[in-house]
Amino acid sequence: MDKLTQKYRLDTLTPDELQKLKEKVNKMSNNELETVIYNDWENADLQTDNIDTLQITHMKNNINSRINSRRPVRLVMLKVVQIAAVILLPIFIISTFYLYKENNQMLSSEMIVATGKGERANIVLPDGTEVALNYESQIVYTPKLYNKQERKIRFDGEGFFKISKDRKHPFIIHAKGLQVNVLGTTFNLSARNNDTMAELTLEEGSVRLVSIMTGKNVLLAPNQKATLNYATGNITITNNSENSKVAPWRKGDLIFRNEKLKIVLKALENNYNCQIKIDCENCLEDIFTGTLSISDINEALEVLEKSYHFKTSIKGKEILLYKER
């Protein structure tokens, strides 16, 4: 980075180097950028010999004429102006970097909020809507359009939504194969691009789920869950007491009902950002029903150990499940 900033100051960057410098600047915070430029300024070997004396003289004469100064231009004054010009150069470089970075940010029309494996986040949208994001989830919206006529977002992952009530500006969620229309309500939506189906569980209010493939829609009441099959576009609704616990992941639980063990292990990998291997290929098709913790991996593994008589070996982020022979 030091060599690139020095070559930028000397105007000797190649096009490839300039592109590389732009990419580095975009990834830096303002404080990091300031530190880099300051260090370059402090360590720079300032050369004043190549500054045109005639230009400096012309600049000095213009300044003198504006302030009605009649003092003669002296060589010492020229030297001071030359040094000042060289000192100002890094300031112009700093301004150029900042302007370039800010302009790039302003030109970006979309706001993206995302979580990775093992991460969760709580965000508040401009209208006051609260969203709790589960692992590997993403919300995308356009700030300059959001809440103008409608509140529209794109979504991938799992999130718990508390939609701020506003009848004049409907809240619309676009996800894989579906659209959700709400005015003000609370619900959990799981709509992952790499899953085979999406699930929407309503806690309060009402919400309309639309299948993009079939065009059909359903209106949900509290404690109802709608499941959308990505392959067919069909929506099924269940209504039972089990759905009363909406978004159990927010309470620190993973609840499984008649799920294959390989799905359970995959969920643990995503929640704990780890890799789980099992020394029992046939066991992956076994069915599991139970609750696992997403805040204590040792507690979750203990449940599996007791359920399947496994032993556990942990090395860093790699976990091995095996049966003693």
Summarize the structure.
The chain has 325 residues and is of the alpha+beta class. The chain has helices at 2-9, 15-27, 30-43, 53-66, 75-107, 261-272, 297-308; strands at 111-114, 121-124, 130-133, 138-141, 151-162, 171-175, 178-182, 186-191, 197-204, 207-211, 217-220, 224-229, 235-239, 253-260, 275-278, 287-293, 311-315, 318-322.
For this structure, the CATH topology of the largest domain is Jelly Rolls
Number of strands: 18
Structural class: alpha+beta
Q: In the CATH hierarchy, what is the class of the largest domain?
A: Mainly Beta
The number of helices is 7
Low-confidence stretches: 69-78
Q: What is the residue-mean pLDDT, rounded to a whole number?
A: 81
First-last Cα distance:
56 Å
Helix content: 25-40%
Give the domain tally.
3
CATH architecture annotation of the largest domain? Sandwich
Task: Walk me through the structure.
The protein is of the alpha+beta class. It has three domains: 2-107, no CATH class; 111-244, Sandwich (Jelly Rolls); 252-322, 3-Layer(bab) Sandwich (Phage tail protein beta-alpha-beta fold). Helices cover 33% and strands 31% of the residues. It is built from seven helices and 18 strands. It has helices at residues 2-9, 15-27, 30-43, 53-66, 75-107, 261-272, 297-308, and strands at residues 111-114, 121-124, 130-133, 138-141, 151-162, 171-175, 178-182, 186-191, 197-204, 207-211, 217-220, 224-229, 235-239, 253-260, 275-278, 287-293, 311-315, 318-322. The strands form three sheets. Strands 1, 2, 3, 4, 5, 6, 7, 8, 9, 10, 11, 12 and 13 form a 13-stranded mixed β-sheet that branches. A three-stranded mixed β-sheet has the order 15-18-17, with helices on one face. Helix 3 packs antiparallel against helix 5 (75-107). It starts with a helix and ends with a strand. Mean pLDDT is 81; it is low at 69-78.
